[in-house]
Amino acid sequence: MWPPTLILHLLLVVRLSLSAHxxxxxxxxxxxxxxxxxxxxxxxxxxxxxxxxxQISPSIPSSSPFGSSFPPERYSTVQYSCVPWxxxxxxxQETPEVCQHYVHAPxxxxxxxxxxxxxxxDAITVSWNPSQYGIAFxxxxxxxxxxxxxxxxxxxxxxxxTNLSLTPAHAQRVYHSDPFTHLSLDSEYVVTxxxxxxxxxxxxxxxxxxxxxxxxxxxxxxEECKKDWYPRYVEVHQENRDVYVTFNLAPxxxxxHQYFSSCFGGGLRNYTSIKPDFSLNKTHHTYRLQNLRAxxxxxxxxxxxxxxxxxxxxxxxxxxxSEEPPTPHFTESSSLMVLLSVGILLAATAVLTFIVVYNKQxxxxxxxxxxxxxxxxxxxDKKLDEGQCVLLDRTTRPPRLLICYSNNDxxxxxxxxxxxxxxxQKHMATQVHLDLWEALSIxxxxxxxxxxxxxxxxxxxxxxxxxxxxxxxxxxxxDEEPLENTAxxxxxxxxxxxxxxxxxxxxxxxxxxxxFEYSQESDIPAALGLASRYTLTKDxxxxxxxxxxxxxxxxxxxxxxxxxxxxxxxKLPAGAALQLAIQEATAQFSEEPTEEEHIGIPIIS
Length: 605
What we know:
Elements: H1 4-23, E1 26-27, E2 30-31, H2 34-39, E3 46-49, E4 78-79, E5 107-114, E6 121-129, E7 140-147, E8 153-160, E9 174-176, E10 180-184, E11 188-196, E12 206-212, H3 216-220, E13 234-239, E14 242-248, E15 259-265, E16 268-274, E17 284-289, E18 297-304, E19 312-317, H4 336-368, H5 373-378, E20 400-404, H6 411-427, E21 431-433, H7 439-445, H8 447-457, E22 460-464, H9 467-477, H10 486-503, E23 511-516, E24 532-536, H11 540-548, E25 553-554, E26 557-558, H12 573-590
Parallel strand pairs: 1-9, 2-3, 20-21, 20-22, 22-23, 23-24
Antiparallel strand pairs: 3-8, 4-8, 5-6, 6-9, 6-10, 7-8, 7-11, 11-12, 13-14, 14-17, 15-16, 15-18, 18-19, 25-26
Helix pairs in contact: 6-12, 7-8
């Protein structure tokens, strides 16, 4: 028989184990009113609270670190102002003492993915543990969710009963939020969990966690995401006059048996149907591009031959074949006179060819010397492989360019910017980002959020300077119309980046400014004085050199990119449209509009 002391110890151990297990329980939100929480009803232990349940005072002092008044929508919906609420706004009226102490930030934030009937969206639930420090004064939690790079914010508020006094043993509890739904797939979000009451002066009352929502195959399975698949590996190589493209095939369970390729260049479109032989290779396939012109830049797309398939874009530059035509071989039976005649004819032809080629090279050299020497010298030492084909695979891609401009000069100037973007994308192997093409993203993220994200992700930024951009700066400096101006904000941000990079000795080539023939260099803001300057369309070769990092010239070699020159760009349909737009804008500016016609709010992109 066990002694009574041992039995007592065993009972204590079992009780402590059961108590610890009980404290690790999960707490999920309850439906209860704020009045129930204030009365201390034991049934209202962990409650979800809407903005309609909270009686907010008419005004909160502007000096408060928590912002001003709040919208009356529920916290499970999109908010334009989602900031921490002072404790006294919802619990301090009757019992002010409950809001006099702060608590430490929650920890161990976890993301749990929930089932969602919407195949294009994801849903999550957030869980966390409260901190044991100050847990006796814990009154609730606020959870916010925001998409990185966007202005969309989701908020949820949870309160504990006023008569509930937790102990450090309750720190093992796991609290859950309500589901956050309608989240974009394969997107990055940040969730913030803060403990209430929020202190007046302290920065450790919240924790953040970044995460990615699931991809389409992870959520719906591979079969349901067949149309969202696209080739990620594309390699282009040229053999003599033949161009071959190698790409990766879709997984076998997708059952994609046919692909297609479409190339556009020189005003013509080339379509190729692709049927791989899976018995030879089940992961990659190589096909031949036909009917392409030598010396032409092509923008090509490849995709699975299914409805609404995502397309992969890549660039192909067809170089001139370096093969010489075979020379005829004469037999020993040929007469000496025939040999002499042919030799004299070949010698005369060679002399004439040399004279023609020499004159052309001399003319090209003369044209090249007219380019600005400081920009030529900037790219002089960079290596240029002659005739090299542009490859686009996992390591190489076209440069991403953000074009910023002001629409204060009217629709003619905006049309010039649009046609320039089309020309750069079609014929200068550049991926252009322009606000006119991404209206939906701007509506979702907001103009400033969209610009900030593009400024950080793009390889280059080109600011189109005009009278309207500089005039708006003058109005802002004279305080004629104190408006929140995106144009000034973007120019100021770029100016700060240039000054910071200059002070640290970093590369300044990311930022460029350009003017058209109807504008002047005096239209360039002083904040952009360190950026590279170009006058369009005269400096199109220089801009191409800047974007692709290739030398304009080196000893014995001059860079010749077909149809990208001051006189040759207008031979292309996109170039002709750009030339016409510039002529219309020039005619408009030559009419000398009055000061009243300039009044407006510029939008920079």
